[in-house]
Amino acid sequence: MNTFSFYNMLKSLIFFIIKFCAAQVLILHLNPAVSVLNSLTTKTEMTDVREQLLSIEQKYKLFKQQQFIFITALERSREHARDKTEPVSTVTQVQRYMNHHCSNSTDRRIFLLFLEIISDLEGILKHLESSLSSKNTSSEGLNTCREILNLNSNISQLRAHYPHNEINRLSCDEARNFYGGIVSVIPLSLDLLNNYSRGGAQRVTPTATETSQQTVAKNAEMVEGLDKDTSNKLSRYKKGAGGWHAGKPAWKPPGNTRR
């Protein structure tokens, strides 16, 4: 190998090293910029999601004010469909009632509002899931929300407890046997989506992840407690059982009653 060839090889090697170092420096400078750009994009997306959730919450407030109308509509539809002994266990069931067993425009309107809110929540969920899939990450909260919003999922054992009051607006029989699950779908889904949009991607609200056994046990204890409390209150006012007249003699009319 002559001297000229050696110098050419050395020159090429030096140029390669310089280019490689320059590329590494460029990457080091670009990575923070890309990260910032991704962060800004994520923040913008989450801001949009939160705005959509606020809009849904306003719509849900309107629905919540009409919960009694919703329950009455379900009662009528279940009677028409001869489902009086079965709980409302899926969103598809509500859809079927609206399409085939709806008796008036008021019932149809409240069913439409309920299904519209469910559809809006599904849209936000799909948007968040597609964003996560592009990052090859997952969220337990979104997975739970997907199960709740699945049209064919059995949600009869779901219960939205405090601070929600949907269950409290039902009678014990309605909450335990028929409508406790269907009125809990929207508030629990809103909780999960709001939690995720605020940065709690891996946190799941305890209410939404209760097992069926835990929910049934909690509801049974609540009903049992109410029944026991009511019976205790009533027992104090039963004749001869104490309470306000305990220790008092029987009432006698004034004057001489002997003949």
TrEMBL record:
Tell me the segments the record calls region Disordered: 228-259
| Assigned keywords, A-Z | Membrane, Transmembrane, Transmembrane helix
Entry superkingdom? Eukaryota
Keyword RNA-binding among record annotations: no
What PANTHER family does this protein map onto? Answer: SPERM ACROSOME-ASSOCIATED PROTEIN 9
What organism is this sequence from?
Cyprinus carpio
Indicate yes or no for the key word Hydrolase. no
Q: What is this protein called?
A: Sperm acrosome associated 9
InterPro entries linked to this entry: SPACA9
The taxonomy runs: Eukaryota, Metazoa, Chordata, Craniata, Vertebrata
Transmembrane residue ranges: 12-30
A single cellular component GO annotation: acrosomal vesicle
